[in-house]
């Protein structure tokens, strides 16, 4: 829209300048023609005035004789005829001037019509050129929009694939972490169970050792009691005992 406004302003400015130049050219031509015709008319008017002065001077001179008067009358008649001829020529010049002005105006109208037609054609050409430029620009904009839309679609597809890949990687990572955590828990439970088993085995071994120790103590006490019991009895021939018991 800004380009269209600038182009319209430029066209209006060019048209105003052309019209101004054409008006100046026409005014200059008209002024030159009028000045020329005015000079010609002034020259003829001066010539006619001079002839009239000469004629008046001749008429004012005293009449000398008949022959001289006759010649003056003939000269006056000739001057009157000449003045009539000059007046007729002046009228014809005025008429020709009108015809020239008319022809000049008609020619100028033709020139102006031709120039107006040329200006119209130029304007139509500029409008067509502007239309072609705008059409081309519109096509370029539409093509750019299509490319942008396609790029956006491809970008969205790539983003979707990236999101899916990220989600899948996250899922795999979570599964791996969960598996590792499960394995760690299982290993820890197995380790705890093994430690508990070993602890139970040690406790059982300790209890067994303690039981054996207490059993040995009990046997030792029972033996000492029997020894004391035997020693406390009166001395008599011991019965034949087993060699192992004798050794004891």
TrEMBL record:
Coarsely, its chief localization is other
* Region (Disordered) location: 198-220
| Coiled-coil features, chain-numbered ranges | 2-107
Give the family from UniProt.
Belongs to the CFAP53 family.
- The residues covered by the Trichohyalin-plectin-homology domain are 2-240
Pfam assignment, any one: TPH
Coiled coil as a keyword of this entry, yes or no, is: yes
InterPro entries annotated for this entry?
A: CFAP53/TCHP (IPR043596), TPH_dom (IPR043597)
Entry keywords, A to Z: Cell projection, Cilium, Coiled coil
Instruction: Answer yes or no on keyword DNA-binding.
Output: no
The residues that cross the membrane are none
Q: What is this protein called?
A: Cilia- and flagella-associated protein 53
């Amino acid at each position: 829209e800004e380009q269209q406004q600038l182009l319209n302003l430029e066209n209006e400015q060019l048209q105003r300048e052309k019209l101004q130049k054409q008006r100046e050219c026409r005014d200059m031509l008209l002024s030159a023609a009028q000045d020329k015709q005015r000079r010609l008319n002034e020259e003829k008017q001066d010539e006619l005035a001079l002839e009239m002065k000469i004629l008046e001077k001749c008429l004012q001179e005293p009449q000398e004789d008949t022959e001289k008067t006759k010649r003056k009358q003939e000269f006056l008649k000739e001057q009157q005829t000449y003045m009539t001829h000059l007046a007729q020529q002046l009228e014809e010049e005025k008429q020709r001037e009108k015809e020239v002005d008319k022809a000049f105006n008609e020619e100028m109208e033709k020139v102006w019509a031709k120039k107006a037609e040329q200006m119209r054609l130029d304007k139509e050409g500029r409008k067509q050129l502007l239309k072609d430029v705008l059409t081309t620009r519109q096509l370029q904009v539409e093509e750019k929009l299509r490319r942008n839309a396609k790029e956006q679609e491809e970008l969205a597809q790539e983003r979707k694939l990236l999101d899916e890949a990220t989600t899948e990687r996250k899922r795999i990572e979570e599964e791996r972490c969960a598996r590792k955590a499960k394995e760690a828990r299982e290993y820890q439970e197995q380790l705890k169970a093994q430690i508990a088993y070993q602890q139970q085995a040690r406790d059982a071994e300790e209890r067994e050792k303690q039981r054996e120790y207490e059993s040995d103590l009990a046997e030792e006490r029972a033996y000492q009691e029997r020894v004391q019991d035997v020693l406390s009895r009166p001395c008599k021939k011991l019965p034949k005992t087993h060699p192992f018991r004798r050794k004891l």
